[in-house]
């Protein structure tokens, strides 16, 4: 399959790109203009996104992606007023632009990542923080695109991640240092 991924500089993204390449998929990644791409494998096609949704639509129509895996996100456990535009741009606007490009180019499927923090105490709507609220808002926007196209959309809500080569200060890594 021809797959476009976002968020490939994060822990999940780096590992997923490797696995998808091993499985023989044609991988394309989208990064913000000005991002450091030196650590990204040469086995992928890199597209620099300058924020122009029309250019994104053109790219999608040209490349004819089978699917999109949207991992990019800005996580902030708490925010201040200066964070609002960054949270909305990263967690709502970019995803909405990807959905628009997907719909316009007839992408078949779209995998999104959310957080268990969207549904505190297992309630339908109870975000723990603004980050979780933006992830929930994006899911609601996605409903419009699935109801007005044949796009199959799914969100995988993550609790936490851990695995080989995880350099973050997680309890498992701390235990191995003891």
Describe this structure in words.
The chain has 178 residues and is of the alpha/beta class. Helix content is 38%, strand content 20%. It has helices at residues 11-22, 53-63, 84-104, 130-147, 171-176; strands at residues 2-6, 26-32, 45-49, 67-70, 109-115, 152-158. Strands 3-2-1-4-5-6 form a six-stranded parallel β-sheet, with helices on both faces. Helix 1 (11-22) links the parallel strand 1 and strand 2. Helix 3 (84-104) packs parallel to helix 4. The mean pLDDT is 90.
Distance between the termini: 43 Å
- The proportion of residues in beta strands is 15-25%
Biggest β-sheet description: 6 strands, parallel
Number of strands: 6
Strand order of the largest sheet: 3-2-1-4-5-6
Helix/strand order: EHEEHEHEHEH
Summing up helix and strand content along with how strands pair, one would put the structural category as: alpha/beta
Based on CA inertia axes, which overall geometry fits?
Answer: globular
Kindly provide the radius of gyration, computed on alpha-carbon positions and rounded to a whole number of angstroms: 17 Å
- What is the overall number of helices? 5
């Amino acid at each position: 399959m021809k797959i476009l991924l976002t968020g490939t500089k994060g822990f999940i993204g780096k590992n997923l790109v490797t696995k998808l390449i091993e499985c023989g998929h044609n991988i394309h990644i989208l990064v913000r203009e000005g991002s450091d791409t030196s650590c990204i494998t040469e086995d992928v096609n890199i597209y620099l996104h300058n924020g122009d949704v029309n250019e994104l639509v053109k790219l999608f129509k040209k490349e004819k992606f089978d699917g999109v895996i949207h991992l990019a996100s800005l996580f902030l456990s708490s925010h201040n007023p200066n964070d609002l535009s960054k949270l909305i741009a990263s967690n709502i606007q970019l995803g909405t632009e990807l959905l628009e490009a997907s719909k316009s180019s007839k992408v078949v499927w779209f995998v999104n990542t959310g957080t268990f923090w969207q549904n505190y105490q297992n309630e339908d709507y109870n975000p723990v923080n603004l980050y979780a609220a933006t992830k929930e808002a994006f899911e609601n926007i996605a409903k419009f695109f699935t109801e007005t196209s044949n796009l199959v959309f799914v969100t995988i809500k993550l609790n936490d991640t851990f695995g080989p080569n995880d350099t973050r200060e997680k309890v498992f890594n701390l235990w191995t240092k003891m």
